[in-house]
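Many introductory courses stop at the sequence. We go one step further.
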Amino acid sequence: MTDSAVFRADQVGSLLRPQAVLDARRRLDAAAIGPGELRAIEDEAIAAAVARQQEAGIDVVTDGEFRRRDFRTGFVDAVDGISMRTFDMPWHTSDGVTKLPSKQFMITGRLRQRRRLAEGEAAYLHALTSAPVKVTLIAPGFLVDRFWQDGETDRFYASRDELAAELAAITRAEIEALIAEGVQYIQLDNPGYGAFLGSHARERASGPGAQAAFDRMVDTDTAAVEGVQRPAGVSLGLHVCRGNQSSMWLGEGDYLPIAERLLGSVPVDRFLLEYDDDRAGGFEPLRYLPAGKVAVLGLVSSKTAALETAEGLAERIRAAAKFAGLDQLALSPQCGFASVAEGGNRLTADEQFAKLRLVADSARAIWGEAG
């Protein structure tokens, strides 16, 4: 087990895309610029974002996922055999449910990897900073669950289990490559677990095959990280997301139905859990956190501009510490600020970095400079 507690002031990964990056990608799509020009614009934006993260005092920096269209496309852009369609997805807001056009990816061929999933991302970050670097990857458990299409995927894979093994192997190879590059923190993102939580997901959570689907998701994520050798100071994390686009969400509900199996099975060092408001339930599921693991409490909302107070965060961390020791806790925003590049949350870049500064300042007040 690594000393992952050093990252008390954490973040989930994505940042609001600067307008220059959004415009450049649209121009690329229109063949008005080439990939090299896009990368130069991304490089400039990432350098500025890294500088602002360091000014905020956050413990680990990311490239904001500026080279990705959304949280899935690091995988999609690197692997052939995947198709896409657009459909209307229901999203939750404080005012009710609305529908937005959303992209659904499907495996419609035998997978063939053309390049690494996060190719070039870590190298550029290391050229900018000596601070610890985080790289995010979509969890293979999510991919096997959501990218499978009956009548299509089963033409190329005999079973979901066969596909799961291949997805886990691809992800594991990328994790090992990132560690070899000196990346100190690799995080898997899995919004799929939210389908097993809350009344809105009751049909999926209790329907035929639900337990098998949940077990496969856990087993696939486990296969990607189990036995991965990492030097001291290198951490693996799993972010259990409830959906994130334009300040809306997909999932609600307490973690309790999945906590014992999930926290006790997936051999990562850190679990990043959303706890920004009442839709996340209470802290009781933290009692299943094994010794030596860290729960990163996503207490700071990435969906609203309203700034939480240091006093309020400290109070909630004290409440969580009743179920897991203070030394097993850390702090972060509840999710990324822009899991989807064109669907960033409704706050400004300055408000975003104020949230990261609050996380950093609060973590140091609670745990001290050394964590």
